[in-house]
Design a protein that fits this description.
- The protein is of the alpha+beta class.
- The chain contains 7 helices and 5 strands; from the N terminus they run H-H-E-E-E-E-H-H-E-H-H-H.
- Strand 1 and strand 2 form a beta hairpin.
- Helix 1 packs across helix 2 and helix 2 packs antiparallel against helix 5.
- The termini are close together.
- 24% of the residues are buried.
Length: 179
């Protein structure tokens, strides 16, 4: 997805997501801030990478990536994966297992990164502002990023795949989550 223009890219989307979480009657915004306070994360969507720094519970800074800045963790994904999650065509565990969501951090910091993803997805169904942001994201992505997903739970072993291939029963279509 293009990151050109004022209403695109992570510098636009991340503050908008946090502002929308602040409207949640269940306190998702406060929960997010308690997770993030005092941490710095490198976040990437497609080829757009930013640094997110939470200095205090009310202050979050999103800036251009600087590879020289140390961070507590890094998370990367693609527009294809985000759309799959938004449309419930893809589960978080499926995206992680397939490499569609990549988290890089020390073990002690891995859980807070997954907690942020879970918090955002949980609130997305009950917060009207998040549903509106999801609609805008889908519209901006257009149809070029929409792909069907193969359910990892229906996967097979190498031996089973070889046999299915020999019999001509192996599905031809797979999805590149890094597209």
């Amino acid at each position: 997805m293009s990151t050109d223009g004022p209403e695109s890219g992570l510098r636009f989307w991340l503050p908008e997501l946090v502002a929308a979480l602040d409207t949640d009657h269940c306190g998702a915004g406060a929960q997010l801030r308690s997770i993030l306070t005092g941490r710095t994360a490198r976040i990437g969507l497609d080829d757009d990478i930013v640094l997110v720094e939470s200095l205090a519970e009310s202050e979050m800074r999103v800036q251009a990536d600087d590879p020289g800045v140390a961070c507590d963790g890094s998370g990367f994904t693609t527009t294809v994966v985000v759309l799959g999650l938004l449309d419930a065509d893809l589960e978080i565990d499926q995206a992680v297992r397939s490499g569609g969501i990549e988290i890089r951090s020390p073990i002690s910091d891995t859980l807070w990164m997954y907690r942020m993803i879970e918090l955002l997805l949980d609130a997305s169904s009950r917060v009207p502002q998040l549903r509106e942001l999801a609609r805008q994201f889908r519209d901006q992505a257009g149809t070029t990023h929409r792909q069907p997903f193969v359910d990892w739970r229906t996967g097979s072993s190498d031996a089973e795949s070889a046999l299915l291939g020999q019999l001509g029963l192996l599905a031809e279509a797979t999805v590149d989550l890094h597209a």
